[in-house]
Amino acid sequence: MKNIYILTKLEIFKLFAKGRSYIAFGAIAFLVFVIQVALLVDGKNFFEFQTQNLRDTFLFEGNLLNGYLTVYVILTALLIHIPFLIALVSGDLIAGETSAGTLRFILTRTASRLEIITAKFITCILYSTLLVIAMALLSLISGILLFGKGDLFVVRDTIYIFSENDVLWRLIASFGFSILGMSTVASLAFLFSSFTDNSVTPIILTMVIIIAFMILSSIDLSIFKLMKPFFFTTYMNNWRLLFEEPFNLYKLINSSFILVFHIALFFGISAYNFTKKDILS
Amino acid sequence: MENIPILEVKSLSKKFKDFQAVNNLSFTVNTGDVYGFLGPNGAGKSTTIRMILSLIYPSNGDVFLFGNSIKTHRASIMKKVGAIVERPDFYGSLSAKKNLEILSKMQMEEVSKNRISETLEWVGLLDRADSKVKTFSQGMKQRLGIAQALIHNPELIILDEPTNGLDPHGMKDIREMIISLNKDYNKTIFLSSHILSEVEILANRMIIINKGEKLVEGNVNEILLSGKQNLTVEVVDVNSALSIINGSEYQQNFKSIEKNKIFLSLQRNKVPELNKFLVQNNVDILSITPTRTLEEFFLSLT
Fold it and tell me: How many whole angstroms separate alpha carbon B63 and alpha carbon B50?
């Protein structure tokens, strides 16, 4: 365990010594800023447009365009696209070292291959976690500072209204669940990274799989409906369960286990491949 | 001195699909040797080195270092081995010092900052310790490669074509380092090369492989004496020298002539006799230069 701790520290250092590791943080900060500013400028019209069909039936009072709503909007918009940013780094963790030739050097040291890949995987998960935490902090702090707090009004198949006191934990839990979803994406990119000698292939493969699964899931054909439970992407968006009433805890826990299973499976295959393969680069 | 094996390669084979890269290769490196591992490009040298370091898994056979199999004692073995495998590749955006710190920590042993500085000084890079490696020349990277192999003070140093891609000055520097490591620091060196003269200068024992198989193994001088080599004899009067050679036992060794140079193929231990013979026959010799290449040596072996 001590070895893995030392190796993980080294991997984190190496990761953050690379410029590409900051692209995702920069992109998220930029997007959160742009969305918040846009909502500040045009948020009232946006909210009125979203609720125009309901205005004949309901009377809207109070600060409904509040920080919590902006965070919800950001969550909905960004969680679909963050996998691209995560794959960019996770796909490079092994393949980048293979193509650069540094893998040869680190594998001639005392540390075992299993220890090295475990440290790299922990780094990969930590990176995904940090990215989601950064997104949560940025959106929550800027949202509350710019728009204040208030009840959260969510329009889905039906209308859900959550009182101000009942929202924050749901948002935090959503970000927590998103960590699992993003870690699954990171693990998939990491898996491909263990098989290839260049970092472009794992990034492309990961995105192709995610896009393909999402497209197939959205087509309303019975064959795709049968396949949907087997796509891990189906469970990634289940953070939305937290914004339904009654709250389906069982389904959320089930989704979490399925994502954890995928993470473990992807790591298991990566580790097996990495410890068995010939290093030819 | 008693021969104590430090590296034993036993019946090692590696097959990549239909390609037999290494075939039933066996040899022994003793403590204190500078052991030349010679072969043309594509002979299977790097594959063998990768198997020794467990970067590649053998199809058959085993490698023993310090008496233990690399398959079962990898971690303890790697504490006593330093290596450069092919090109010296580093984290280009990090400094030389930081690269060494990372690699030494991966050795799972505490290496002091002093040791890193000493090693950098030894390879002549202390003044560039804080420079990013991406700014280094090939020669500097090669020296840094040697530094990373030495950082944990190993007993056996494996160098895979360490002078590849270097200019003559860089080659000389690296060769002097190898000699010093062996003579001054008692390190055993396993030196892979495709340059015969390099192994001739540096090694005391050697193996020559081709197409993944052993051609010959043993003492460098004995091996080199056993085969013929090409000689260039530069003389003042080429016609009179040629007539003397043609009327002698050396006629069968004659190959060609160019300006004032006569090219002969002769066993190494016959060179002094040839020299004596020419001098006794009043041939004014400007130089006698061995010009044997590895390829020519292979031909003389087969």
Answer: 11
Residue of B nearest to A2 (CA): B108
Q: What is the pLDDT of residues A41-99, one digit of tens each?
A: 887 777 777 777 766 676 666 667 888 888 998 888 877 788 989 999 999 999 999 99
> Position of tokens 């965070």?
A71
Q: What is the pLDDT of residues B28-87, one digit of tens each?
A: 999 999 999 998 888 999 999 999 999 999 999 999 999 999 999 999 999 999 999 988
Same domain for B244 and B160? no
Can you give the pLDDT at residue A217? 85
Task: Quote the pLDDT of residue B302.
Answer: 55
Question: In CATH, what number is assigned to the domain containing residue B109?
Answer: 3.40.50.300
Q: What is the pLDDT of residue A60?
A: 66
Specify whether B44 is located in the same domain as B105: yes
B137 shares its domain with B245: no
Same-domain check for residues B293 and B195: no
Same domain, B246 and B211: no
With a CB cutoff of 8 Å and minimum separation 6, the contacts of A85 are A23, A24, A27, A28, A131
Distances from the Cα of A233 to the Cα of A148, A162, A262, angstroms: 33, 27, 11
- Structural domain boundaries enclosing B270: 228-301
Residues B215 and B166 in one domain: yes
Chosen for mutation from A5, A93, A104 (greatest number of chain B CBs closer than 10 Å) is: A104
ipTM of the complex: 0.81
The answer, yes or no, to whether residue B297 has pLDDT greater than 80, is no
Q: What's the domain count of chain B?
A: 2
Of the candidates B193, B224, B255, which is a domain's last residue?
B224
B200 plus B257 within the same structural domain: no
Q: Considering only CB atoms, which chain A residues are within 8 Å of B148?
A: 105
Instruction: Report pLDDT digits (tens) over B104-160.
Output: 988 887 778 889 999 999 998 999 999 999 999 988 999 999 999 999 999 999 999
Comparing alpha-carbon positions, the chain A residue that sits nearest to B14 is A278
Q: Is B94 within 8 Å of A17 when comparing Cβ atoms?
A: yes
